[in-house]
Design goal:
Elements lengths: L15 H7 L6 E4 L5 H7 L4 H9 L24 H14 L2 E6 L3 H16 L3 E5 L12 H8 L5 E5 L6 H9 L3 E5 L13 E3 L15 H19 L16 H10 L6 H15 L5 H9 L9 H18 L3 H8 L3 H33 L4 H6 L3 E4 L8 H12 L3 E6 L4 E7 L6 H11 L4 E6 L3 E7 L3 H15 L8 E4 L10 H9 L11 E13 L3 E8 L2 E7 L9 E13 L2 E12 L19 E2 L1
Parallel strand pairs: 1-12, 2-3, 2-4, 4-5, 5-6, 7-8, 15-17
Antiparallel strand pairs: 1-18, 8-9, 9-11, 10-11, 13-14, 13-16, 14-15, 16-17
């Protein structure tokens, strides 16, 4: 699916509602996860039977895999390059050398920078940071960023959440006599930067237990290795400088890990769980407390949702629209008044970001509406550009389009020097960074820069190369994605037995860490719609009945009347209002139940049974 900068101006005169109806989202099919034999093992260990089924369906085989204690984390020596990094950092501390951290301009980069600054300063290092303005310098340790950092007279540059592709930047630093330590988690290219110490779980030869660490997780592990080395050296020195409790940084690690949407394997779940524990207990950085306060969100019951959809977007807004140093300063300061002022600035930027995003999303829908029905149905990807769009927001719009149409989406906007800069989001089965690599090999010279992950990546092309890029991107998508992969499915954990759906279950679910690769539980059932009223102009507050019990529910983004009976996929959540807690069902998807012959009433799916509902 492609378009160009003139498409939006040629759309037929339709209301946005009419456009949305024509460009209908790919409606999901509700599919139940297969029952798993490991559920019985988990339940026998005392885990709630419902949660035992949920965990087993996500690959958990033993209770030990649910342990999120810090003792279960792998030793930092198992992360390739971490010990070499520690030795170089200790030398810098001993010699009083200047360290400059070069950060990325998203929430992962900001938190990684804050972790590095706080941790290294607590160990006695002389540390400053620079973060490139995305509109002026672009991504990574470029020669221009080396020039910028050189004004701080560093002996050592440390990159966080970037650098693995910075071949030219590392060479430029070496020419100035500046050492470089790269801490990153992005996929490496064919050539690694040299000379540099590299800490990246995805680099060749690394056998660390997880390849899914976020940039902030990598930096945290470098600090663990550095403290371990200092602790060994100070073992017999009664006058040694006290070493910091690095667990105090886990709120930052949790925020960056969730905001970067990395898979929540056991290691990442541990880091996030420990960080959330500190936030809920009030032992957080002044900046994180201020961000929650500015957003009018309490911290006492904070979950990964608040990190990913409240705090993360506000930190990201600084890098998208202004200067990420605002976000980093908020996370680094120990002054409550300064943190409050910076958090309020982030809140304002986030409101501005939402307004820009809304306009761009509407314009994108207008552009898509110009396509004929055949092209709309046959497209395997979405690729859009508009001369009016803001390059700091293209990634969010790509994410919205990916969610709506269940297709890989790439959205581009004008950059500098006649370039188009784009950001993409993908679906399961389509590795976005690898797809861009295929495009680069097939179309030499087309991609000026690219990089990223399986699910998110960025690209820079020439201003006149959009049509060529869109066609090549669509070809790779068509070759890669099967018809079944282009069909959206909504997996649920089945139907709950009478008595299982309760406030206690919702509370237990809310206490766990859920996210990418460890999806929050959802269930499905048929309900009678007892009552429906519109709230906020676009959402429905519902009363649903099932088997004699009634439940409060919320359906976001839908204000039209529902039928008298629905088949719904839902998440049980705790609704907190005026100090009271109650059970609320969040409806993820609904459809009219299939007709059922009376004699088949007893054949309704049961809890845990696999199949299509």
């Amino acid at each position: 699916m492609d378009g160009d900068a003139t498409d939006a101006g040629t759309a037929p005169s339709r209301t946005l509602r009419e456009i949305a109806l024509r460009c209908a989202a790919v409606s999901p099919t509700i599919v139940r996860r297969a029952a798993c034999a490991h559920a019985a093992t988990l339940a026998s260990a005392g885990i709630d039977p419902v949660l035992a089924r949920v965990y087993a369906a996500r690959g958990v085989q033993s209770p030990q895999e649910l342990d999120t204690g810090l003792d279960g984390l792998p030793h930092p020596s198992t992360l390739k390059g971490a010990e070499a990094a520690a030795h170089r950092l200790v030398v810098a501390i001993d010699r009083g050398e200047r360290i400059v951290i070069v950060a990325d301009y998203d929430a992962d980069g900001a938190t990684a920078c804050a972790v590095g600054v706080r941790g290294l300063r607590a160990m006695g290092a002389d540390v400053e940071f620079v973060v490139p303005n995305r509109f002026e310098y672009g991504y990574g340790l470029t020669p221009e960023i080396v020039d910028l950092a050189a004004h701080r007279a560093p002996n050592l540059i440390v990159t966080v959440d970037n650098g693995i592709a910075s071949v030219e930047g590392v060479s430029a630093a070496a020419a100035r006599g500046i050492d470089v330590l790269i801490t990153d988690h992005h996929l490496p290219g064919a050539t690694l930067p040299a000379p540099a110490i590299i800490v990246n779980p995805n680099q060749p030869g690394c056998t660390f237990a997880s390849r899914n660490l976020a940039g902030v997780g990598v930096m945290f592990y470098v600090l663990l290795a550095t403290r371990a080395l200092l602790r060994e050296r100070q073992r017999d020195d009664p006058h040694a400088r006290p070493l910091p409790n690095l667990a105090a940084l886990l709120d930052l690690v949790a925020l960056g890990t969730v905001a970067d949407v990395v898979p929540l394997d056991r290691i990442n779940r541990t880091l996030v769980a420990q960080g959330l524990r500190r936030i809920r207990g009030g032992a957080m950085q002044k900046g994180i407390a201020a961000i929650f306060a500015a957003a009018n969100r309490p911290t006492g019951a904070a979950t990964a949702f608040e990190l990913g959809f409240v705090a993360g977007p506000r930190v990201n807004a600084a890098g998208r629209l202004d200067d990420m140093s605002i976000g980093i300063r908020c996370l680094v300061t120990d002054d409550a008044d300064e943190a409050r002022a910076l958090a309020e600035r982030l809140e304002s930027l986030n409101a501005e970001r939402r307004s820009i995003e809304s306009a761009m999303r509407d314009e994108a829908m207008q552009s898509i509406a110009t396509l004929d029905d055949a092209a709309l149905a046959a497209a395997c990807s979405i690729c859009l550009v508009d001369a009016r769009w803001h390059q700091g927001v293209v990634g969010i719009v790509a994410s919205r389009l990916k969610d709506r149409f269940h297709r890989p989406a790439m959205v581009l906007a004008p950059g500098s020097d006649g370039e188009l800069k784009g950001s993409g989001r993908s679906i399961a089965g389509f590795h976005l960074r690898d797809a861009l690599d295929i495009v680069a090999k097939r179309e030499p010279g087309l991609l000026r820069r690219f990089g990223g992950h399986a699910m998110a990546a960025g690209v820079t092309i020439g201003h006149d190369d959009f049509a060529r890029f869109a066609a090549a991107f669509e070809t790779v998508a068509r070759e890669t994605l099967s018809a079944s992969q282009r069909s959206r499915t909504l997996e649920t954990d089945g139907e709950l037995a009478p008595g299982e759906l309760s406030l206690a279950l919702a509370t237990a679910i809310g206490a766990e860490v859920w996210g990418q690769g460890f999806a929050p539980p959802s269930f499905d059932a048929e309900f009678d719609v007892v009552d429906q009223r519109v709230v906020g102009g676009a959402h429905s507050r519902l009363r649903l009945s099932d088997g004699g019990r009634t439940f409060d529910a919320i359906l976001f983004g839908h204000a039209d009347p529902l039928p008298a009976r629905i088949h719904a996929a839902y998440r049980p959540e705790v609704n907190r209002f005026q100090g009271l807690q109650s059970l609320q069902l969040v409806i993820e998807h609904w459809q009219a139940p299939p007709p059922m012959h009376p004699q088949h009433e007893n054949n309704k799916p049961t809890a845990g049974r696999a199949g299509v509902a």
